[in-house]
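Structure in, sequence out. Go:
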């Protein structure tokens, strides 16, 4: 099934962006080709702007501590698998310990690398990292794959605990809600919201052969979902046929 996730606050948006960018970095690093490594490095430098918030590390640590307490309170619950619970608690503990052990700001070791910062400055210019703009970067890209991967290992080592923390928190968030089946006839769905604790993310799943994709708008009163069809030339148009989908409201 095709899955779409829509965060309802900036905090969850940041976590999803970090997960997406870091995953692409790892994929391109593993691919090995110099073009892949170029994409990985540009993504790494873009990620620096996202993690520039001074309180991001503290937010992650506090959320991990909160989830650890919540998970510990589930012990003895007959509907909870103790082995799964132990595994999640182990992940939380490892991520929290590693984050606390590094007193530096996230990404500070990269910001102190003048060569990387020179690439970052040029990367903001369209076509600004051509070989005549940055011959040193061109030289690095032509080094052997093993050397480039070793550099990435060094650059990513102190960011990996952040990535593990993000993955753990999002894993808990994604598993927090119950999926419900829905059917719409005209490409539009609305659900009123209630309760004292607002949702933090919405997940929508469509069958793989669906020709539609969802767009979501929400406030504290209601969720509005519109399904559109893409023709790759004109603007997307709202679907005018019946659609079946699953929806999950997630909350930490």
């Amino acid at each position: 099934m095709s899955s779409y996730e829509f965060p309802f606050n900036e905090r969850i948006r940041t976590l999803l962006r970090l997960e997406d960018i870091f995953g692409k970095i790892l994929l391109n690093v593993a691919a090995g080709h110099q073009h892949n490594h170029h994409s990985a490095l540009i993504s790494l430098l873009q990620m620096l702007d996202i993690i520039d918030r001074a309180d991001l590390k503290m937010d992650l640590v506090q959320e991990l501590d909160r989830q650890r307490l919540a998970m510990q309170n589930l012990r003895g619950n007959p509907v909870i698998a103790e082995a799964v619970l132990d595994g999640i608690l182990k992940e939380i503990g490892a991520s929290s310990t590693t984050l606390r052990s590094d007193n530096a700001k996230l990404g500070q070791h990269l910001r102190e690398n003048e060569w990387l910062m020179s690439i970052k400055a040029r990367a903001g210019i369209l076509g600004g990292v051509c070989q005549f703009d940055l011959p040193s970067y061109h030289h690095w890209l032509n080094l052997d794959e093993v050397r480039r991967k070793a550099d990435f290992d060094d650059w990513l080592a102190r960011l990996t605990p952040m990535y593990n923390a993000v993955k753990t928190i999002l894993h808990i968030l994604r598993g927090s809600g119950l999926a419900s089946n829905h059917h719409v006839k005209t490409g539009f769905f609305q659900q009123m919201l209630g309760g004292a604790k607002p949702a933090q993310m919405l997940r929508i799943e469509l069958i793989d052969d669906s020709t539609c994709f969802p767009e979501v708008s929400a406030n504290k009163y209601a969720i509005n979902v519109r399904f559109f069809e893409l023709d790759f030339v004109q603007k997307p148009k709202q679907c005018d046929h019946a659609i079946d989908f699953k929806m999950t409201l997630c909350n930490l």
